[in-house]
Inverse folding.
């Protein structure tokens, strides 16, 4: 059987990702340009600046991707591109580039929902083990959701965050802690820095945060309380030990361990609700078999959090999976793989040539 190749384009936030994946799930090329270095200087993403950087890099990223895969543009089967959700200015760069390319090559253009791509990514590496439907915990810098995944375009939302996303909380708290002034964390995102710092704790139980939404028996999340409690605890500590304005509190490792435990407990608490919900006999979602659990999105990079989630799932007889770390965070591979899933699902119907209809939504 002839192999098909899907080109995936991701520009929803601050990473320019372009990749080629074939229909068997083999990654033929993966180009990822991070903007972290620029945005760290300003303490966050400035959307017009992010747009400029995507614009400046997208053509060369595409050329490098083709070279890496040793393919000619005509050999591509389809172009997949993130159309939502994301920063509109950033999304536009990818969508315009993809439209132009698809029209020039006369190839189908496949729109991709970014969070769906996170959810389906683990299937690329575990196609046999993760069949539809499965339960998915999506935790990233912009989202936190529990969903039942029935196929591309067929997700049922069980619950989501009422305020901040966990990655966003990590990034803001990391910034407030000033972890970025430590040379080893300079170019790391907040979540990764906090994960590393937590391992340096000498008294991991020194900080304790209340469990959010403890009384609610649903699948929603809230991270604003943990964030505000964190800001308060950091300020109290800075005052007590007279931390200079460009310094980091001395026991930041202990603090990060407490924070990580709080986020982890909340994610587990809600995932437990979702598993129990799926196992209710009247739901008939999964028959008698425990659902397979997938954790995905940038926060799934966190080994401690994932180990806790996997442990919880195992208590209910659920197998759990996450994508390889390089595919947990935003990248072009997950967009290309979503395109492959679309092609595999309905081979003809999803071949879209009405390029102007594909837009950011
Ligand atoms: O999925 P992603 O790359 O982008 C979004 O779609 O948001 O997720 C980025 C988020 C960031 O907020 C970052 O703090 C978090 O993922 N993150 C982590 C880790 N690595 C990245 N959070 C916890 N532990 C990590 N190791
Ligand atoms: Zn993402």
């Amino acid at each position: 059987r002839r192999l098909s190749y899907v080109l995936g384009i991701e520009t929803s936030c601050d990473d320019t990702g372009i990749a080629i994946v074939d229909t068997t799930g083999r990654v033929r090329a993966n180009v990822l340009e991070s903007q972290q270095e620029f945005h760290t200087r300003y303490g966050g993403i400035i959307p017009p600046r992010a747009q400029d950087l995507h614009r400046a890099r997208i053509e060369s990223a595409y050329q490098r991707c083709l070279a890496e895969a040793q393919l000619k543009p005509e050999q591509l089967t389809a172009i997949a591109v993130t159309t939502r959700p994301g920063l509109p200015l950033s999304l536009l760069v990818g969508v315009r580039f993809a439209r132009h390319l698809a029209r020039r090559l006369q190839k189908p253009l496949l729109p991709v929902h970014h969070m769906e791509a996170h959810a389906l990514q683990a299937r690329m590496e575990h196609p046999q083990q993760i069949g539809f439907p499965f339960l998915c915990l999506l935790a990233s810098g912009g989202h936190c959701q529990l969903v039942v995944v029935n196929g591309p375009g067929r997700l049922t939302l069980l619950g989501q965050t009422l305020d901040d996303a966990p990655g966003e909380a990590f990034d803001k708290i990391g910034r407030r802690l000033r972890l970025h002034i430590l040379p080893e964390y300079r170019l790391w995102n907040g979540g990764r820095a906090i994960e590393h710092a937590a391992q340096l704790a000498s008294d991991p139980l020194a900080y304790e945060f209340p469990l959010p939404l403890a009384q609610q028996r649903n699948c929603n999340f809230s991270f604003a309380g943990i964030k505000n409690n964190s800001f308060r605890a950091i300020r109290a500590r800075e005052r007590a030990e007279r931390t200079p304005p460009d310094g980091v509190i001395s026991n930041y490792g202990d603090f990060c361990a407490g924070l990580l435990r709080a986020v982890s407990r909340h994610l587990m608490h809600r995932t437990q609700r979702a598993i129990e919900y799926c196992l209710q006999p009247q739901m008939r979602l999964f028959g008698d078999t425990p659902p397979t659990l997938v954790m995905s999105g940038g926060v799934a990079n966190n080994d401690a959090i994932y180990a806790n989630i996997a442990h919880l799932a195992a208590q209910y007889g659920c197998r759990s999976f996450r994508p390889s770390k390089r595919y947990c965070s935003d990248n072009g591979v997950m967009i290309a793989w979503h395109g492959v899933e679309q092609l595999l699902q309905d081979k003809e119907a999803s071949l879209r040539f009405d390029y102007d209809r594909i837009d950011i939504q």
Observations:
- The pocket of zinc ion (ligand 2) is lined by residues 114, 118, 140, 297, 330 (CB under 6 Å).
- The radius of gyration is 21 Å.
- The longest strand covers residues 15-22.
- The domain at 134-318 is CATH 3.30.420.40 (Nucleotidyltransferase; domain 5).
